[in-house]
Every structure is written in C-alpha cells, then in structure tokens.
C-alpha cells in the first residue's frame, strides 16, 4: 500500500463518485464527526455522487437514505440499495421478502450456535433491524476480542453454509454470493446508466476492513484508513493507498484533497 499523499492530484481531479464504508471509516471511536458529515454535503453540492456501502442493517440504511447528504446507500454487505427520490426512498433488494425471511431464520440458528461456541461474543445489538443477514459482535458492545477470533467465527459461518465477512466490529453472515461490489455494479447500471468499466477512473473508494476487499480489488483509487493494516489480508485484497490517520481522521485526509479539485 502506498501513502495516500502519493496519489497524484490529477487522478483525484477525475473523481465523480465518492464511495465509502461507514463504521471506522467515516466514524472515529464510534462517533460520526461533524466535519465528516459536512464534507459529504460539500462534495455532493459540488457535483460528486456520494454512495455509502456498509454492513449495517436495513433499518439504519433507511434513516441514512432519508437524512444524510448522499445519493444512495448499499446495506447489509450488498443485499440491497436504498436511494432517495423526491422525498421518498426507492428500495431495491436481491431477494424477495419470503426468501429474506427464510434465510434470516437459517442464519439466526447459525448465529445462536456460534455465540455459544465463542465465549465473549454476542449477537450484535443492531440485529433486530436486519433483513437479510446476521451479525456477531466481537468488538462493538462487548470487550474487544482478537481479530483471530473474528476470523475463526467467519470460518465457522462458512462451514455452516453461509457467506461471511469480518468488519472492524462484527462478523456478518448471509446466504448468497453477493457482496458490496456486486450491488454497487447493479446500482451503477440501474440508477446511473453506466458500468464499472465506464467509471473506473471516476470512483474513489474508502474503507477499513476485509469486507471492503471486493471494492479495494476493483478500483485503482482505493484508499484504506490506517487500521486496515491490522488485518491479515492477502495483498491482492488490500487497498492501493493508505492514510496516515485512522477512521474519520483518515477519511478527512481524503475529503480535504478531493475538495481541492474543481468539480465540473
């Protein structure tokens, strides 16, 4: 990974989509700083599309789509996107309601078993607002466990037939082969009439953990905040650049440079 300061300004001048993870990328110590929110508004007012891609639940994403200065939010690691449109929210899901309910029932059984197998973990407090996945908490509302423990939980979900990814606070599990990138591709095609190939030099992605790997691998302008270096990720899964600061501090390094360019 190269220092973010080494990313040429002329490449940043081409950015038309600022795409970002939320937890521990836009936040710092669990808090969204006012400066981050303001920077999203400033960039959007200047013509940059702001798209957030998160492992957080549908209930949270509904609020984000309604009240944040964004163009769309992809949630539950790629299960859906919500897009504000004329005071309403357009909701696009991969699975139909009956499939979501059946999958969630299976996943809940898995998660209950896994929490029993890994002392110190808990079902994430945001699970009641999830529609398509489950989250096991290893570092948010429980005393932080090791990343090795999180990886073992992830592998256990996979052994039980789920897809699973580690974030900075949770292990998320779902049924299906989708991820953050696959739903972002669908969002681009459905809402902006373009493909990933069309916007390869126009998308900058920021993230912090293994569930961001599909986006890191896809885009040359992929930036990890400092904590991404703590994960034992294959080199091919890592972002191309890394910030000096962690969490929101790192994101603000990116936002500050983006705001230097003249948007068209």
Keywords:
single chain; Rossmann fold; nine-stranded mixed sheet; 8 helices; 34% helix
Account of the protein in words:
This protein is of the alpha/beta class and about 260 residues long. It has two domains: about 1-95 and about 180-260, HAD superfamily/HAD-like (Rossmann fold), CATH 3.40.50.1000; about 95-175, Hypothetical Protein Ta0175, Chain: A, domain 2, CATH 3.90.1070. It is built from eight helices and 13 strands. It has a nine-stranded mixed β-sheet with strand order 1-13-12-11-2-3-4-5-6, sandwiched between helices. A four-stranded antiparallel β-sheet has the order 7-8-10-9, covered by helices on one side. Helix 7 links the parallel strand 11 and strand 12. The longest helix is centred in the middle third of the chain and has 21 residues, at about 95-115.
How many helices? The count is: 8
Largest sheet: 9 strands, mixed
> What is the structural class?
alpha/beta
Named CATH architecture of the largest domain: 3-Layer(aba) Sandwich
Element-level helix/strand string: EHEHEHEEEHEEHEEHEHEEH
CATH topology heading of the largest domain: Rossmann fold
What is the CATH top level name of the largest domain? Answer: Alpha Beta
Average pLDDT, rounded to a whole number, is 96
Gross geometry:
globular
Radius of gyration: 18 Å
Q: Approximately how much helix is present in the residues?
A: 25-40%
The CATH superfamily name of the largest domain is HAD superfamily/HAD-like
Q: Got a strand count? A: 13
Distance between the termini: 30 Å
The strands making up the biggest β-sheet line up spatially as 1-13-12-11-2-3-4-5-6
Domain unit count = 2
Q: Give the DSSP E fraction (strand runs of 2 or more residues).
A: 15-25%
Low-confidence stretches: none
């Amino acid at each position: 990974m190269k220092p973010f300061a080494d990313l040429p300004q002329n490449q940043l001048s081409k950015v038309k989509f600022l795409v970002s993870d939320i937890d521990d990328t836009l936040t710092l110590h669990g808090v969204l700083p006012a400066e981050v929110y303001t920077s999203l508004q400033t960039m959007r007012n200047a013509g940059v599309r702001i798209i957030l891609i998160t492992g957080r639940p549908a209930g949270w994403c509904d609020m984000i789509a309604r009240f944040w200065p964004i163009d769309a939010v992809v949630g539950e690691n790629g299960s859906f996107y919500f897009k504000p449109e004329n005071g309403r929210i357009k909701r696009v899901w991969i699975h139909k309601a009956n499939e979501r309910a059946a999958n969630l029932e299976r996943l809940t059984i898995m998660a209950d078993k896994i929490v029993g197998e890994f002392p110190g973990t808990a079902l994430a407090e945001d699970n009641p607002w999830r529609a398509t996945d489950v989250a096991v908490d290893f570092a948010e509302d429980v005393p932080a466990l090791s990343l090795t423990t999180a990886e073992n939980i992830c592998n256990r979900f996979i052994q039980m037939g789920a897809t699973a990814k580690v974030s900075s606070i949770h292990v998320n599990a779902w049924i299906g082969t989708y991820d953050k990138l696959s739903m972002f591709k669908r969002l681009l095609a459905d809402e902006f009439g373009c493909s990933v190939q069309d916007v390869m030099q126009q998308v900058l992605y920021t993230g912090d953990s293994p569930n961001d790997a599909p986006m890191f691998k896809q885009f040359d302008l992929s930036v990890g905040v400092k904590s991404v270096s703590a994960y034992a990720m294959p080199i091919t899964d890592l972002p191309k650049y890394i910030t000096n600061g962690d969490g929101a501090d790192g994101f603000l390094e990116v936002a500050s440079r983006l705001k230097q360019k003249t948007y068209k």
